[in-house]
């Protein structure tokens, strides 16, 4: 029996009899209960049909009359796969991105879209009259002492690598130095004291180029005043600091960025020994300038910025001074001060040529000792040593025109260098040798044979 699904109270006959068919009144008509039950079952099946058809649309599924799903040869995809489906759930559309790709979170429009400047609406309740007259500028806070040193140290150290003063000037203009402008020459000189002679030359050029653009002459004087006060501390790390600071002062006076009366202002007022030594050094250099010596060469010559012709001349003078004095350490120091490790092969070449052009044993032994010392101290690398010997091997035919016995002297010198461990066996074997003429007396059958040179 079907349950009574009606909410209508039972009549008296139904309560008493129970055997008669139950009826329900709908819209004034009495309908049997069995018809209502069948109608509810059919409605439930239709709801299930609509639900399954919308979920499994396009997968070949169908629903039977009793609500069971029938598969028509197509395996349904996982419901999770529908999460990444761009097609409309209603079955409409071609699966294209919404709004032509301009929609979605964090998207401001289609690629290449240019927005116009938004005009201010005067009727806007948030409109402010002063808003149109506002000028927005980027405010850079002035550097304090700690941030100053941390920021400028990498800039100056990088300048020692590229040597472009204009780049340093542009970078300093972007900073708000404030009252710390005078500290720029102080920091540059302090870093140059620990560097090479080429770094000091570059520092002098940097201070001269920055004067008038980043710092003033008053700032330069203030910076050297501070350097003289800090000389006792600088001398702890760089013992030659007093003499070097004196050379910086003399170079600044020579470049015109420091007054010529700057040194006279300290006469009789300096108690520090290091400061007096620096001022005395500057005074001596300036007095020598009046005698004809140029103050712009106070740091000597060296570095890759020098011309090849000048470097060849310096190396030639170095070797000649060594042959007169015989001081190997002094020659080594002078070679290192040139700061051209990529050009050391020139010294090897010039030294061997001097041996070939010499007539006595003194030059032979002194050059051999020099090359041996430079090789053991690693001042001249294996590559530079090899390149110098190969240059001599290539030019020995031209050298032999001026020096007839150059082949035999070269063979002997190369063999001595090999025995001393200066060169390797393959490099020794590359040494060219000049053949000699073989005459009739040597059993050639009356013929004269010329060996190749």
Automatic annotation (TrEMBL):
SMART domains: MA3
An annotated GO cellular component: nucleus
Chief localization: cytoplasm
InterPro entries hit by this protein: ARM-type_fold, Initiation_fac_eIF4g_MI, PDCD4
UniProt-annotated stretches for the region Disordered: 1-110
Biological process, per Gene Ontology: negative regulation of DNA-templated transcription
Keyword Cytoplasm: yes
Biased composition (Basic residues): 43-52
Keyword terms, alphabetized: Cytoplasm, Nucleus, Repeat, RNA-binding
Pfam families membership: MA3
GO molecular function, one term: RNA binding
Entry superkingdom: Eukaryota
Domain spans labelled MI: 147-268, 310-433
Biased composition (Gly residues): 98-109
Cellular localisation: Cytoplasm; Nucleus
Stored PANTHER family: PROGRAMMED CELL DEATH 4, PROGRAMMED CELL DEATH PROTEIN 4
Family: Belongs to the PDCD4 family.
This protein's name: Programmed cell death protein 4
Lineage start: Eukaryota, Metazoa, Chordata, Craniata, Vertebrata
């Amino acid at each position: 029996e079907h349950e009574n699904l009606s909410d209508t109270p039972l009549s008296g006959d139904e309560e008493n009899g129970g055997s008669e068919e139950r009826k329900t009144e709908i819209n004034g008509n009495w309908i049997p209960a069995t018809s209502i039950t069948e109608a509810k079952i059919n409605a439930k099946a239709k709801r299930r049909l609509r639900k399954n058809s919308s979920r499994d649309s396009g997968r070949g599924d169908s629903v039977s009359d009793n609500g069971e799903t029938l598969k028509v040869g197509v395996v349904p995809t996982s419901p999770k796969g529908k999460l990444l489906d761009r097609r409309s759930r209603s079955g409409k559309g071609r699966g294209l991105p919404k709004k032509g790709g301009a929609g979605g979170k964090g998207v401001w429009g289609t690629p290449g879209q240019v927005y116009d400047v938004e005009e201010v609406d005067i009727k806007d309740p948030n409109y402010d009259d002063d808003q149109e007259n506002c000028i927005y500028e980027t405010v850079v806070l002035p550097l304090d002492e700690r941030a100053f040193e941390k920021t400028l140290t990498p800039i100056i150290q990088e300048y020692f690598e590229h040597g472009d003063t204009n780049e340093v000037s542009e970078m300093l203009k972007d900073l708000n130095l404030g009252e710390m402008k005078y500290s720029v020459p102080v920091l540059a000189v302090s870093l140059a004291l620990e560097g090479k002679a080429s770094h000091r030359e570059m520092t002098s050029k940097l201070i001269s180029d920055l004067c008038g653009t980043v710092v003033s002459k008053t700032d330069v004087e203030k910076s050297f005043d501070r350097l003289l006060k800090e000389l006792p501390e600088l001398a702890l790390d760089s013992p030659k600091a007093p003499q070097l600071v004196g050379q910086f002062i003399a170079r600044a006076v020579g470049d015109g960025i420091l007054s010529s009366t700057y040194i006279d202002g300290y006469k009789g007022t300096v108690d520090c020994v290091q400061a007096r030594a620096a001022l005395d050094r500057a005074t001596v250099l300036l007095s020598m300038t009046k005698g004809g010596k140029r103050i712009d060469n106070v740091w000597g010559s060296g570095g890759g910025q020098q011309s090849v012709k000048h470097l060849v001349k310096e190396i030639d003078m170095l070797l000649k001074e060594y042959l007169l004095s015989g001081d190997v350490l002094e020659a080594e120091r002078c070679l290192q001060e040139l700061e051209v490790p990529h050009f050391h092969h020139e010294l090897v070449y010039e030294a061997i040529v001097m041996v070939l052009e010499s007539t006595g044993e003194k030059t032979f032994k002194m050059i051999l000792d020099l090359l041996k010392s430079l090789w053991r101290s690693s001042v001249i690398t294996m590559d530079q040593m090899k390149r110098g010997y190969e240059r001599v091997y290539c030019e020995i035919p031209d050298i032999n025109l001026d020096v007839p016995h150059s082949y035999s002297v070269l063979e002997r010198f190369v063999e001595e260098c090999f025995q001393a461990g200066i060169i390797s066996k393959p490099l020794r074997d590359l040494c060219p040798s000049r053949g000699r003429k073989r005459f009739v007396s040597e059993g050639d059958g009356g013929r004269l044979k010329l060996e190749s040179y």
